[in-house]
Amino acid sequence: MTTSEVHPRADADARMALIELAHCVEPADAVVGRLVQRAGPLEVVDRIRRGGAGKRLGEGLRARLADSGAPSAEARATAIGARIVTRVDREWPRQLHDLGAAAPFAIWVLGAADLRLTLLRSVAMVGARACTGYGELIARTWSAALAECSWTVVSGGAFGIDAAAHRGALAADGVTACILAGGVDMPYPRAHEALLARIADEGLLVSESPLGIEVRRQRFLSRNRLIAALTRATVVVEAAERSGTMATARAATEMARPLMAVPGPVTSPASAGCHRMIGEGEAALVTSADDIMGLLDLGRSQASTNPAPRANRDALSSAERRLLDAFPARGAATAERLVSSSGLPASAVWAGVGVLASAGWITEDPAGWRLVRDRPPPQPS
User: Fold this and answer.
1) What is the pLDDT of residue 335?
2) CB-side exposure of 235: number of CA atoms within 13 Å?
3) 270: DSSP letter
4) Tell me, what's the pLDDT at 56?
5) Is 268 in contact with 243 (CB distance < 8 Å)?
6) Span 256-287, pLDDT tens digits
7) Taking the domain 311-371, which CATH number applies?
8) What's the rounded Cα separation, in Å, for the pair 141 and 171?
9) Residue 182: C-alpha distances to residues 157, 205, 263 (Å)
10) Do the domains at 115-303 and 311-371 have one common CATH topology?
């Protein structure tokens, strides 16, 4: 997949700016994220280079940007068989926009599968590193069952529950994605180098850290928000009261994503976090992979049977309404055609189609996007 195939030439500068920001801004930096939302990536990168735009865009970011090697990032990724996916690329998972100002600017992907399509039907399986045999068995067998039903299993590649989840999906010849805290070329933990290599061959390794970046403590926490954001639901197998797993659970709750937890022995500290979430109603209790799929199918069937209220169009932003009006009454439209017919920049078109698709206004097909036939046609605002 070449850059020219996924976005118009006019958007190449914005794409490069997003890659530069990914090199110099720490993951989940909502302050810089809000600046990018207001001014755009090109303007923010220019401010960083010029300096004098306040402490937030001061010497630290300027030094990082100068030393980042961002201009050669794509060549280096291609050299190891990886690719960079930015907010303006077609492969970008639209659900990441739910992170708001804390969304990543770009992500590195190692693996042949299409990132966005692979994660449309995905479940996060997470839990304690120091898990029990019971937790490991649950994670492995349930992940295999989910994979056999064409669900992508997503986890973080760590010892314990994460590794069991990945191995369960692979054992069922399914697809699994590992979200790393360091670069996709820096396997961590080292003891899982063979496992991560197999995931890259049969699934996906994903990271918002550029190549060559080793894991850092803070990046484990920021990585957890991606696991929650990229998936349809998060399942916690075992978790202590205070742990990185609980951070993933909180992120899922903040984005109103389904959160599920597995009960364990009442005497097990490894299940204390799960029991609290179940007891306080934060997480649904699940006792099988069928429970997980049943809850997800219930949510989908409810969404499909509830007609969208007329207020839905009023809830769209002016740019989204403008994009909706640009769709042809019949047939599909490509991103390039929508840029031309709407007059919106490509970045706004890519963001807008994600919103319109999730709201049920449009659907994707091999030729691009088309209006959903059972929706009323766009009306003048």
Assistant:
1) 80
2) 32
3) G
4) 60
5) no
6) 889 999 999 999 999 999 999 999 999 999 99
7) 1.10.10.10
8) 9
9) 11, 11, 31
10) no
Separation of alpha carbons 272 and 117, rounded Å: 35
At 304 the pLDDT is 41
Which of these, 288, 351, 301, 353, lies nearest to 86 by C-alpha position?
Answer: 351
- What tokens were used for 89? 């690329």
pLDDT for the residue 249 = 94
What's the count of helices (H) and strands (E) in the chain, helices before strands? Answer: 18, 11
Question: How many Cβ atoms sit within 10 Å of the Cβ of residue 246?
Answer: 19
Rounded distance between C-alpha atoms, residue 84 and residue 76, angstroms:
10
Are 290 and 350 in contact by the 8 Å Cβ rule? The answer is: no
Delimit the domains of the chain by residue range. Answer: 3-110, 115-303, 311-371
* 256 SS3 class: coil
Low-confidence ranges of the chain (pLDDT < 70): 1-10, 52-58, 298-315, 347, 351, 358, 373-381
What is the topology classification, in CATH, of domain 115-303? Answer: Rossmann fold (3.40.50)
List the one residue out of 186, 208, 257 whose CA is nearest residue 23: 208
Structure tokens at 81: 């068989």
In our burial notation (b when 16+ CB lie closer than 10 A, e otherwise), range 91-120 reads: bbbbbbbbbeebbbbbbbbbbeeebbebbe
